[in-house]
Amino acid sequence: MSRRSAYIYSDALSRHVLREDHPFVPSRLRLAYELLESYHAFKESDALLVSPRPATEEEVASFHDKEYVAAVKGFSRGQSLVDPAIYNFSDYGDNPTYKGMYEASALAVGASLVSAEQVLDGEVDVAFNTSGGLHHAGPKYASGFCVFNDVAIAIGYLLKWGMRVAYVDIDVHHGDGVQDAFYDTDAVLTISLHESGQYLFPGTGHVAEMGTGKGKGYAVNLPLAPYTDDERYLWAFNEVVPPLIKAFNPDILVTQLGIDSHYLDPLAHLQLTTHAYTTAIEELGKLAPKWIALGGGGYEPGTFARSITLAYGVMINKEWPNEIPPDYRERYGLTELRDRDRPNIEESAKETAQRFAEDSVQEIKKLIFPFHGIRSLIPPSS
Questions:
Q1: Which sequence positions are flagged as catalytic?
Q2: For residues 283 and 241, is the Cβ–Cβ distance under 8 A?
Q3: Residue 1 has what pLDDT?
Q4: Please, are residues 329 and 38 in contact by the beta-carbon 8 Å criterion?
Q5: Dist CA 27 CA 253 (whole Å)
Q6: Mean of the per-residue pLDDT values of the chain
Q7: Distance CA 276, CA 357 (A)
Q8: How far is 194 from 287, CA to CA, in rounded Å?
Q9: Edge-to-edge strand order for the sheet containing 219-224?
Q10: Residues 164-191: pLDDT tens digits?
Q11: Contacts by 331-335 with C-beta closer than 8 Å and gap 24+?
Q12: Cα 175 to Cα 83: distance, rounded to the nearest angstrom
């Protein structure tokens, strides 16, 4: 399917440093952009390269508490008028304060708003902001490397235009901040596939977290066990995501496409390859006429760059050659775009992951599907 697309990027998104030893390295965005450029992605007739803009303070405060926004501004200038720990900042924790923090965070939010504007205005069918997907931040606190929640802000913007929004989050970590933001509304369907909170930050995202009030049944969580591989992941994805999206029938799809589910990622334990990642994105692309795609986790820079390139290829219906272009290969040492190797997983771990996935899917079908009028045959428990 041919789509007109926008890739939202400028070097300003990739220049800040949270801390020298911090795993969240914004320069990975530059690596992904350069790889796409080496494939001449932005010379494609339907592929636009669009600059971001900083979100205004009013736009940031559409979701975040004004005192929190003011505090982030102060920390960004090196001023500590209040204890950073009040807002979950710590020099040696996940969320350090750093010079230019407000400006960097506001630009990532603005990039997601530009994505939304491009799609709503009909300029493109899909827009991709790789700097976005900062799904953990809450109204009054930073969390999980996320200062401002660009996802919640962008979805809030879409709701003001009367859009019915489906949000699918395939980052390895539960999309808790976005879920919380829309937990009591049926205007947004949130679906998060992630390594179970039993094993991984932020410790949430169980199937029983299914919304409240009008939103009951509209928060969907598909937790998975460590060592879940391509086959088990895609089975669970296909059992849950397409039926729910089709039943919800959104005007627009928003996706968080973190690649920290990859088997080479240092911060989690799922064992996906670029095959499963690309296949899931292909399926997502079939589920809504309009699509806003956001980045997310991914802490092995080469894997992040390769995966983002594959994802954008899906968006513009372009299959890149597997051999990475010589100029990029010489600079960064990457030779092939797609994974050739597969993780070596013990059979016992595969069996545990299979049972865990089956239990999660069965519980979703039992608890969530009826809210959406989906009939599903659920096998009896053994």
A1: 136
A2: yes
A3: 60
A4: no
A5: 27
A6: 96
A7: 15
A8: 20
A9: 47-50, 5-8, 126-129, 291-294, 252-256, 165-169, 188-195, 219-224
A10: 999 999 999 999 999 999 999 999 999 9
A11: 331/34, 332/31, 332/302, 332/305, 333/302, 334/35, 334/302, 334/305, 334/306
A12: 27
Rounded to an integer, what distance in angstroms lies between the CA atom of residue 345 and that of residue 271? 8
Tokens of 230: 């391509």
**CA 287, CA 24: separation in Å to the nearest integer?**
30
Rg (CA), the chain: 20
Map tokens 């509304």 to a residue.
Answer: 185
Q: What is the pLDDT of residues 196-219, one digit of tens each?
A: 999 999 999 999 999 999 999 999
Q: pTM for this structure?
A: 0.97
What type of residue sits at position 203?
G
The tens digit of pLDDT for each residue in 89-108 reads 999 999 999 999 999 999 99
Residue with tokens 């919304």: 211
